[in-house]
Design brief:
The complex is a heterodimer of chains A (about 350) and B (about 325).
Chain A (H helix, E strand, L loop, with lengths): L1 H28 L4 H6 L5 H10 L6 H13 L13 H36 L4 H15 L2 H15 L22 H4 L7 H11 L2 H7 L3 H38 L2 H8 L4 H38 L5 H10 L3 H29 L1 H5 L1
Helix pairs in contact in A: 1-15, 5-6, 5-9, 5-11, 5-13, 6-11, 7-11, 7-13, 10-11, 11-13, 13-14, 13-15, 14-15
Chain B lengths: L1 H8 L7 H6 L1 H14 L2 H18 L1 H4 L44 H37 L1 H15 L3 H12 L3 H28 L2 H8 L4 H12 L1 H24 L11 H8 L8 H28 L1 H4 L1
Helix pairs in contact in B: 3-14, 4-6, 4-14, 6-7, 6-9, 6-12, 6-14, 7-9, 8-9, 9-12, 10-11, 12-13, 12-14, 13-14
Classes of the chains: A mainly alpha (about 350), B mainly alpha (about 325).
């Protein structure tokens, strides 16, 4: 097993290297005048020369690349051309939002999707089955931005006078006061990496609210994330539901299931103990694949629901031609994506011992 | 199950011997077609698509106005809610089935013309991705060795980015326009088709009839394009139909973000993006194109699923 994991790890290195090169090249072929984007349309030629000098834009491309790699290896992603803020700092502020959003969407997708899929397979050709598959088919077809706006319309406007009203935008209610984790734990004089890590977790408001017992923060942040998470998670939910159903039906038709039934095992036990475990492999695959869809959809969801996360930052930095930020954020997203695929690959090994050998 | 049994029971009686002889050439196609028509989801998808395609093709006849007609002379106001005379809207008001948008244009007419754009966008994008993807996949699978490795690693890199994000970057590089949005979405889709083609080439390559063609002295390219590629088309058709749905979604998403069609073009994603802040005051401006977009994507998804069930021999026999 360890050899299997190691080999997969090694295999992902060339992909990551390729990703770094592609991100570097893409960020540089975006037609733009970084100087005028940063200093304004009327920047003088001298100012632009100094600017190019400062950011190393006069060096030949391969030297810029070497400098970039050197900085990367020290964990330095550079500074935003527009604001001068280090990219790592922006990342620490904005990644937590996206992490919470995608995780919540993923939980929604897995829990609802698998439940629907199991019900559907368990009661094949029943009304519940047909209804579930209609939900799944529409769910996979509705664009994220349409669903997001639709949900906002229903929960923020149509239901505004009921108990089901949910906020259509923002991360927390305006004016909500809360403490970060270091503040709540009286660790204010903590510094260095532990402090950075705690600050990062503090920006995950759900987690922060839970571990520091600020339940009003937790509830408020959760209410703000429900609609975006459903909008983002619906397509993966539908895919997971369909895959669970077809995979489970496939497994339930096999001989060993008949044997289990013939032994007189209870139907529920057959489906859940014998069927489900072996039906999981394709489901895990689509769960892994859907992380890409989630990261894509995050751009749209964050734009619609006014969340300042990674997706929206990439989009804004592209429009503003802030290529250092584009470079850093795209790289992080691609790395997360590659890592998730790695985890999916490795979980195959756990679920299906035959794969470890090949 | 019962539906397909019923369909089988209602099949016409066998044709007279002479007629059977004549139709032998087409019988394989006929069998495939009847397989497809036996799939409920394929039929539903085809019906929705026929309706949408008819609406798009005859948009010029159905639409009461041109997509960029400003209806101020007709007495319309910006963002009027739908007004249908049959449903009790007063005759004194101008009839606009789906209301008007912020520039006082008829949403119904724009939605119809939007159908032309979305359907064309989906088909053209996928055809492009299929051609390039199959070529890469076919060469990769047939040549093997270092070329295969190189091409497939290239595809890995493309897949290492979330699709929409990569498309956004490509559009930014190429500049904003509908064509560039289509190109970006097409490029992002290439790896899927390359992989599908490569794996079918790998399995077809070892078949006896390919060995026979080689023994007869057929050239490499001849074998590839006359023997292998036609036999790899089935998974491609299924993947392509589902791909049209994805392509329509992604181009619409780019337009929604302001990276696709120019603002005056009645593309559905565009229409939603332009009016998204009017959700509270004029929800019909978002609901109409949103529903149409969903319906179109749904139709292609249903058709693709149905085709897969009909064409996959493992599921059929």
């Amino acid at each position: 097993m360890i050899r299997f994991i190691l080999r997969r790890l090694l295999l992902s290195i060339p992909v990551l290297a390729g990703v770094i090169v592609i991100v570097f090249v893409l960020a540089r072929v975006i037609p733009s005048d970084p100087c005028r984007a940063a200093l304004g349309e009327r920047a003088t030629a001298q100012a632009c020369d100094a600017f190019a000098e400062r950011f190393g834009l006069n060096e030949p491309l391969h030297e810029q690349f070497l400098i970039y790699i050197g900085a990367l290896s020290r964990g330095d992603f550079g500074e935003s051309i527009r604001t001068g803020q280090p990219v790592t700092e922006i990342l620490l502020q904005r990644l937590p939002t996206t992490v919470e959003l995608t995780l919540l969407a993923l939980v929604f997708a897995i829990v609802v999707g698998m439940t629907l899929g199991i019900i559907s397979a368990y009661r094949r050709n029943s009304v519940a089955d047909v209804g579930t598959m209609i939900i799944a088919n529409v769910g996979v077809s509705i664009p994220v931005f349409v669903l997001g706006l639709l949900l906002a319309f229903i929960f923020a406007i149509l239901l505004r006078d009921t108990a089901f009203v949910l906020p259509p935008s923002g991360r927390t209610s305006p004016g909500l006061a809360f403490q970060s984790i270091p503040e709540a734990w009286n660790l204010d004089d903590l510094g260095g990496i532990p402090r950075t890590v705690l600050d990062f977790f503090s920006n995950m408001y759900l987690l922060n609210g839970l571990v520091t017992l600020q339940f009003d923060l937790f509830v408020d942040a959760l209410r703000h994330l429900i609609l975006p998470a459903i909008a983002l998670g619906t397509i993966p939910m539908a895919i997971i539901a369909r895959m669970t159903r077809s995979s489970l039906l496939d497994v339930l038709g096999q001989d060993y299931i008949r044997t289990a039934r013939a032994k007189g095992l209870h139907n529920r036990l057959v489906v859940f103990r014998h069927g489900l475990k072996n039906a999981m492999l394709p489901v895990v695959t689509v769960i892994g694949l859907s992380v890409g869809a989630l990261l894509s959809g995050a751009v749209l969801t964050e734009t619609i629901f006014g969340l300042t996360g990674v997706g929206r930052t990439v989009f804004e930095s592209i429009t503003a031609r802030d290529y250092i930020v584009i470079q850093g954020f795209t790289l992080i997203i691609a790395m997360i994506y590659v890592m998730v695929n790695l985890v999916v690959d490795i979980s195959y090994g756990f679920l299906d011992p035959r794969i470890r050998v090949t | 199950m019962t539906a397909s049994q019923a369909a089988r029971a209602s099949e016409p009686a066998p044709l007279p011997v002479g007629a059977r002889e004549e139709s032998r050439g087409t019988s394989r196609w006929r069998e495939t077609l009847s397989n497809i028509l036996r799939q409920r989801s394929a039929v539903v998808g085809l019906l929705i698509l026929a309706l949408l395609a008819a609406a798009a093709i005859f948009a010029g006849f159905i639409a009461p106005y041109a997509p960029d007609d400003v209806l101020i002379p007709e007495g319309a106001r910006p963002r009027m809610p739908p007004c249908i005379h049959l449903l009790g809207c007063p005759d004194s008001q101008l009839q606009v089935l789906f209301g008007t948008d912020g520039n006082v244009r008829d949403v119904f007419s724009r939605a119809l013309y939007g159908g032309q754009i979305s359907l064309t966008v989906g088909l053209v994008t996928v055809v492009f991705a299929i051609i390039v993807g199959s070529l890469i996949g076919a060469i990769s699978g047939y040549a093997g060795g270092w070329l295969d490795n190189l091409l497939m690693r290239l595809m890995d890199f493309l897949i290492a980015f979330p699709a929409l994000l990569l498309a956004i970057v490509i559009v930014t590089v190429l500049g904003r326009s509908l064509t560039n949005a289509m190109l970006a979405v097409g490029i992002v889709a290439i790896p899927i088709y390359a992989r599908v083609m490569r794996s079918s080439v790998l399995s077809v390559r070892e078949q006896d009839y390919v060995a026979a063609a080689r023994a007869l002295g057929d050239s490499g390219a001849g074998i590839l394009f006359r023997r292998i590629v036609p036999n790899s088309m089935t998974p491609m058709v299924v993947q392509g139909t589902l791909g049209v749905a994805t392509a329509i979604l992604e181009v619409a998403a780019l337009s929604f973000l302001g990276l696709g069609a120019a603002p005056n073009i009645p593309e559905w994603g565009n229409m939603i993006g332009l009016e998204r802040n009017q959700l509270f005051s004029a929800p019909h401006l978002i609901l109409v194109p949103g529903m149409l977009l969903t319906l179109t994507v749904l139709a292609f998804n249903l058709l693709g699923d149905g085709l897969r069930d009909a064409l996959d021999p493992r599921l059929n026999r």
